Amino acid sequence: MRRDAQLDSDTDEDEDEDDAGTEIAFVLDGSGSIQHDDFQRAKDFIYNVMFNVWNTCFDCNFAIVQYGSKIRTELSLLDNDNGAKTLQKVKEIQQIYSLTKTASAIHHVLTDIFISENGSKIDSKKIIIVLSDGEILGDNMILSDVLNMPQMKGVTRYSIGVGDGILKKPQAIQEMMDIADRGKFFNVSNYAALDDILSSLQQSLIGIEGTQQGAGFQFQLAEAGFSTHLMQDNSYLFGAVGAYDWSGGVFLQSGDTVQFLNDSNNGPKFSYLGYSVISAKVKPSTTLYISGAPRYNLTGGVFIFNGSEKYVLQGDQVGSYFGSVLCALDIDKDEYTDYLLVGAPHFHLNGEEGKVLLYKLNQDRFESVSRELKADEGQTFARFGAAIASIGDIDGNKFNDVAVGAPLETDSSGSIYIYNGFKHGLNFSQKISPSDFGMKLVHFGLSVSGGPAMASNKASIAVGSQGGVIVFETIPVIVIKPDITITPDVIPLNQQMIEISSTFDIMYHICFKVINEKLQIQLPIKYQIALDSGVNKKRLTVDGRDLLENTFTLTPDVECAPVINLKYLGCFDCFSPIKIKLNFSLDLHPNEAPIRILDAFTPTEVVKEISFKKDCKVTDCKPNITLSDSKISETSIIIGETQSLSINFNLTNTEDPSYMTTLTLTFPSILSQKKIEGATCPVKNDNQIQCNLQHPVFKRGAQTNLFISWQLNDIKSDLKNSEIIANLTSQNHGSKILDSKIYAFAVKYSLPIQLTGSADPSRLSIEEGKEGQTQKMQFVFQFAGENKYGATIGVVVTITKDTFKTGLDIISVTPHEECVFSENTKAEGSYVINCTMTKLQKIIIDANVLIHDVQEKSNKITAVGTYSFDETVYTAKDTLRTIPVEVIITKLRVTTSKGPIIGGSIGGFLLLFIIIIILIKCGFFRRRRKVDQAQSPN
Ligand SMILES: [Ca+2]
Ligand SMILES: [Ca+2]
């Protein structure tokens, strides 16, 4: 940047050849107490110092040492060859953090930076600038030892203390004052304020560099003629940048009179006023003399002299060289200046992009225009604005045009940007780079000027590059505006059908109108017509295609192409207009120089529309179709029982036509779409259907009845409530919702079960006198039906007895896993068995019964089975949930009642008598007597 690409006519070339230069080492505090943003500001400060010092000091070399927990050379004196890369290195410095080893860091400069192995020259002037926010911390070196080292002899030291911290710590201030030579300690309250001391520090540095001696010579070293400008009345302006200790000045020479325009010699030093000079004629009697001072207040300035008055336009960035390039522009060719363009070619964001600022003349004063001209995005090193020229009216639109050079663009090959003038300013139209015309050049765009060409009468532009000038001839611009007629351009209502049966043709007619001139030549035009552009299902065709390409020769007599017949196919979409897009270009021979060129600011694409006639009462065509008459068949469904669910839609359009009316129904996965009557529903998936209602046009007064039914999927889900969502939309002015409705319903699952109970034996009895015997018995409860959806069923069996004279012991309960008998319930006189099951299982309760006695006529044991389940999820048809089983206990006893006993005795005696007769007949008693005799001893 300063060595490899120094473009500006340099003011430093008269430097002492034997001067060993100046070496400036920054000692940058990167300790932990410095915030990240503040560290960035410190880096920016160093960047700006280097950038600005380099603009005046050719032999200044920089080094940077950062210190924190360690000490690191960020930039060595050997790293100064390429200005842009060196500055980039400054931007890339990473903060170290931790300790504040200021003394060690200064020691490092003396022992590692200012040594010949690392590029230091013995005779050079040496400067150390320490930038810190606090007192020394964790440093094993003693500051005074380092400052008194022999190597420190002849080194100028500056220190800059930054931050509130340092202001409050006397120790820190003392250290910074010790470091600095007398009068070279700067002190600011925060890092953002560093820019405030930039100017004073730089001027101190440049002062050391030697040029300050120029002050003594005043005009002897004024460099008058650094820039010149010849005016129409043959008077001259001369810039004298060196005048008054480089504050600079401007001379006006008219005939033999020389006038020094700068009115005093106490302007800021090193402003370089006179770096550029121009004049602006603003009235027949008024000429403004304008001169740039690119280092005025460091940001640069432009001085405008109007007679005895003077005012300054100020640049907006330190070091941007605002005002180094100037251009007065008479945009409307009335010979009076309208705009002032000011180049700031060193303006930097990420590198050295450069920019051009615009000022508009308003009653003899130039006022800032918010717009700035800039190089293309990504051109980090462009130096845009290094040259600016009014190049005449190259496009023939009666407004003068401007070229801006960016000589460092694309690795220093350079380019120029063309801006065309208009009534209200400038518009970019073209960029020209050496690669466009196949040349390898360096710094193309270093200078630029325009005017009548040498050989032809066409306007031309001369562009300077390193070692050469390229002259461009301009091609005359032609402005062509197509005039398109479409007949008819509205589709009538009777043609608004999805497919039309009869022929309906549309005529398309283009005329290419030449604006502002009478054409003298023949000009071939290539054009392309895209039918129903942007739509998939085309509504127009020409010979079966939707794209037509043609060439037409424009002559002084014929400007209209032949009429094209377009075939209308019908309208699936009868609402949105049919767009027909025309693109055109000049059909130029690829190997010949173009004879004319189309105006860059007149569109070469024209879209015309064919609209549909609309039977609408209001201009925005508002239909009115509601879902309010539609009903769902069930508000609650039982999976396993309910057969189907349906919605009946009764839809009437009471207002304007509705185009592409669609009903979208979104339903839950427990439903499957089963039947649709009354519309076609082309879009279907697992949980959505989309029905087309009276496509393409649902006319006013039209009615549609739509019936949609779903079957219930036999699956279990956790849904207790569900819904079907209906959205009714039309495509009038894009998709619009006409109405929407939610059809909610409750969901339950069927549980078709029934509980039965039994006891075995179903009756217990004891004989009188045989009380206290244990008897076994069994209760059984079981379900009929099925538990398809896995309901958890709770069964409670409660056994009670109505007397304490009956003892009861539960021996076993099955199933064991599912049922629990709580022994402790026995004491309360009842026996409770709790079962929880999802599988329907038989509940068997075995018990021992001990009947001590029976009171009254009978006693009983009652077992009551009750079942329950989550009724918010399941529903059973059977409402009887409680099943009682009773076992009656009776006592058998001998009765005192005679009737039956006498009857029974007579029958018994009669039978005995017959048996005895039979026994006598058979000789039983005889034998018996013998036996008795034999057995008896007597
Ligand atoms: Ca003008
Ligand atoms: Ca123009």
Automatic annotation (TrEMBL):
Residue ranges constituting the VWFA domain according to the UniProt record: 23-201
DNA damage keyword on record: no
Predominant subcellular localization, coarse grouping: membrane
Keywords noted in UniProt: Calcium, Cell adhesion, Disulfide bond, Glycoprotein, Integrin, Membrane, Metal-binding, Receptor, Repeat, Signal, Transmembrane, Transmembrane helix
Record Pfam families: FG-GAP, Integrin_A_Ig_2, VWA
GO biological process: cell adhesion mediated by integrin; cell-cell adhesion; cell-matrix adhesion; integrin-mediated signaling pathway
InterPro entries: FG-GAP, Int_alpha_beta-p, Integrin_alpha, Integrin_alpha_Ig-like_2, Integrin_alpha_N, Integrin_dom_sf, VWF_A, vWFA_dom_sf
GO molecular function, a single term: metal ion binding
Matching PROSITE patterns: FG_GAP, VWFA
Transmembrane parts of this sequence: 901-920
Statement: the UniProt record of this protein carries the keyword RNA-binding: no
Membrane topology of this protein: Single-pass type I membrane protein
Gene Ontology CC annotation, any one: external side of plasma membrane
Localization (cell): Membrane
FG-GAP repeats: 308-368, 370-428
Annotated family: Belongs to the integrin alpha chain family.
Protein name: Integrin alpha-E-like
Organism: Sinocyclocheilus anshuiensis
Gene (UniProt): LOC107701425
